[in-house]
Automatic annotation (TrEMBL):
SUPFAM superfamilies membership: RmlC-like cupins
Taxonomic superkingdom: Bacteria
Residue span(s) of domain Mannose-6-phosphate isomerase type II C-terminal: 47-167
Alphabetical keyword list: Isomerase
Claim: Signal is one of the keywords in the record: no
Molecular function (Gene Ontology), one example: isomerase activity
Name listed for the protein in its UniProt record: Phosphoheptose isomerase
Source species of the chain: Flavobacterium flavipallidum
């Protein structure tokens, strides 16, 4: 994705740039949410999960990452100096790849937040089901390709499958 996040100063601008890039890559956006206090996301058509994984996670084997028949590809957009909640999930593991910008991430197997790691474009991180994590916007907008690995085929994960341990926005 060709986006220079350091020259972008509004949410509308970054979202329109990402949407144009996704269209150029022939991805179908089935849901877009630019209302999150930390930024927002684009949900890519599930039918394009294999193409999305090949584009953003070419080093991963589809058979290895596909725990169930659903992967839920997304693009996360994180605003400068904003943090997603310190959270974990019961029904999914997550794989992230930094696409643009520099982001911070914290992970931990317990409720205590780990040290912040700085991730740059091309960096990759994988969180297991139940692993605590937080994505943090640093100086500029951050863009992350994400795949949800659904761990329960009978009850796939959704936006409600979030246990927030701490949240800057009181959710």
């Amino acid at each position: 994705m060709e986006i220079n996040t350091e020259k972008i100063n509004t949410k509308e601008h970054i979202f329109s740039q990402i949407e144009a890039e996704l269209q150029k890559q022939n991805f179908t956006v089935v849901n877009k949410d630019a209302t999150r206090p930390w930024g927002g996301f684009f949900v890519i058509d599930e039918e394009q999960a294999a193409v999305f994984a090949a584009k953003y996670f070419p080093h991963l084997d589809m058979d290895t990452i596909k725990i169930t028949n659903k992967l839920s590809p997304k693009i996360l957009v994180v605003a400068p100096n904003k943090r997603l909640s310190w959270q974990y999930h019961f029904r999914r593991a997550e794989i992230w790849k930094i696409v643009a910008g520099i982001l911070g991430v914290k992970t931990s197997p317990t409720d205590e937040e780990g040290e912040i790691q700085s991730l740059t474009p091309g960096d990759f991180i994988q969180m297991d089901k139940g692993e605590r994590h937080r994505l943090i916007g640093l100086e500029s907008w951050g863009v992350v390709a994400e795949i949800w690995q659904h761990t329960d085929p009978e009850n796939p994960s959704d936006e409600e499958d979030i246990v927030r341990l701490q949240d800057d926005f009181g959710r």
